[in-house]
Design goal:
Largest sheet: 8 strands, parallel, barrel
Structural class: alpha/beta
Radius of gyration: 17 Å
Shape: globular
Oligomer: single chain
Order of helices and strands: HEHEHEHEHEHEHEHEHH
Distance between the termini: 37 Å
Helix content: 40-55%
Length: 236
């Protein structure tokens, strides 16, 4: 039988923030590695990383996820620890990807997995009921399964368009978020994949009122301004 989460006050607060969230950013750590010869942790430019996190949150980003399978685990832990601190300062949510142990150690708000990663039950066994858990979906069958999973807090539909952050993964188009929006459910979902300021209107027109972006903010010369421009095109 599926486990029904029984969160504490902190868990309820995180879920309230999730419900109000509209703009979710995923970032790797590569551009913050300025001294690769220094080894884990010391290689990171913490000032630049903090500046990016602050700019994103102040620009209207609700959730920031660190997703980088190419760094040492200690580097990821150091980056997520800083992210959690900044998120707490600015009232945002911090997210880890894939590694439940790292999410537990750093105390982030959100844990995100793919279809081949930990099940919701397994993630809850490690993280308990206060952490928000999300899953990536590429088909309507996966969306329906996620929608009916009582232990899952949100899911993502995509990639809407082909994107270099997910090489080799075919685009699902706008039909999938439209199908998700048509479900008689209050579960939170985000559209993801190749979304930027020029096409976000197509996504919202399809029925998705929450989006995940990567390059639209991470590669912007002014992350705060880019986040603000995206947020202005999303429902209040």
């Amino acid at each position: 039988m599926a486990h029904t989460p029984h969160p504490s006050h902190m868990g309820h607060l995180r879920r309230d923030r999730l419900v109000s969230a509209r703009l979710y950013v995923c970032t790797d750590l590569q551009r913050f590695i300025t001294r690769p010869e220094a080894g884990p942790v010391d290689e990171l430019d913490f000032d630049a990383m903090r500046e990016f996190f602050v700019a994103s949150y102040t620009g209207g980003v609700d959730i920031i996820q660190i997703r980088d399978k190419g760094v040492a685990v200690q580097t990821e832990i150091a980056a997520l620890t800083l992210l959690r601190q900044v998120a707490n300062e600015y009232g945002g949510l911090s997210a880890a990807n894939d590694r439940a142990d790292v999410a537990l150690i750093t105390g982030v708000d959100v844990f995100h997995v793919g279809q081949d990663d930990l099940t919701t039950e397994e993630a809850r066994m490690v993280l308990g009921d206060d952490v928000v858990i999300g899953r990536s979906c590429q088909t309507i069958e996966q969306v329906q399964e996620a929608d009916s999973d009582i232990g899952l807090d949100y899911y993502c539909t995509g990639p809407i368009w082909e994107t270099p952050t997910k090489p080799g993964r075919a685009a699902v188009g706008l039909e999938l978020p439209a199908q998700a929006a048509s479900l008689e459910s209050s579960k939170v979902f985000f559209a993801i994949g190749g979304i930027d300021e020029t096409n976000i209107g197509e996504v919202t027109a399809a029925g998705a009122d929450r989006v995940v972006v990567v390059r639209a903010v991470t590669q912007a010369s002014d992350p705060a301004a880019s986040a603000r421009a995206l947020r202005e095109q999303l429902p209040a």
